[in-house]
Amino acid sequence: MKYINNRNKEPKELAEYRETPDATYDGFAEKKIVRQSLSDEQGYICAYCMGRIETDTCTIEHYIPQKHHQDSPYSEEEHKQQSLLYSNMCAVCDNKAEHCDKKRGNIPLEILNPHNPSCEELITYSLDGSILPAGREKEKVQKDIDTLGLDCNKLKKLRYGAWSDDIWKRFKQEYEEKDWSKELFLKYAEKYRNKKKTKKGLRFHVYCNFIAWYFDYYANNYKKR
């Protein structure tokens, strides 16, 4: 999960529509503009799994679901109002209900929220690509991981593949082991926490936080031979 920071200004089309009588999310016709804005601020990665998204293929997720459910602390009217708030939206990947919003449905999340910077502190990883709860309230974090399917086999393989088949392979081609150091690993960890300028604009690398975690792991555990 990646914290969504420096939020874009809300698209005026959404703000104007929200002020119309009897406005509903289903009645809003300019969703592509919102998807574009969300995708851009998220660096074109899913707010939950950090896989690649594009404006034309991603979907708009409501952190507080559009529809009321029995475990919700909000009323039906509050759900309706939240469904049109840009601050309640994020862009997520499209999949076959294996993970992220498609698996979650209307189930409320306990603590993991991509709009809250603490979301990154509540998650850690293992060397094989597994995602694990960290810090406080691990039971709630684990419940959200399960609700979102973030530790499914598909995502574990994709995370590890992005590291081993791409990033780590290129790193070893660029640097001989004699040049490895804690400082170098930390430099690369920071590099992958930030967006990179590409031909398609500023983007995060897919599974960027996992890649940064791996470089941090090497920084903390590597010893020169």
Could you explain the architecture of this structure?
With 225 residues, the chain is mostly helical. It has one domain (12-221). Helices cover 40% and strands 9% of the residues. The chain has helices spanning 12-18, 31-41, 76-82, 100-104, 138-148, 153-174, 182-193, 208-221, and strands spanning 59-62, 89-92, 123-125, 131-133, 196-198, 201-203. The strands form 3 sheets. The protein has a two-stranded antiparallel ribbon with strand order 1-2. Helix 7 (182-193) runs antiparallel to helix 8. The longest helix is centred in the last third of the chain and has 22 residues, at 153-174. The radius of gyration is 19 Å and the shape is globular. The model has no long low-confidence stretch (mean pLDDT 93).
The sequence of SSEs as H and E is HHEHEHEEHHHEEH
CA(first)-CA(last) distance: 35 Å
**Structural class by helix and strand composition:** mainly alpha
What is the overall shape? globular
Binned, the helix content reads: 25-40%
Tell me what portion of residues adopts beta-strand conformation: 5-15%
Within the largest sheet, what's the order of strands?
A: 1-2
What is the radius of gyration? Answer: 19 Å
Low-confidence stretches: none
Tally of contiguous helical segments: 8
Q: Give the total of domains.
A: 1
Total number of strands: 6
Mean pLDDT: 93
Query: Main beta sheet: strand number and arrangement?
Result: 2 strands, antiparallel
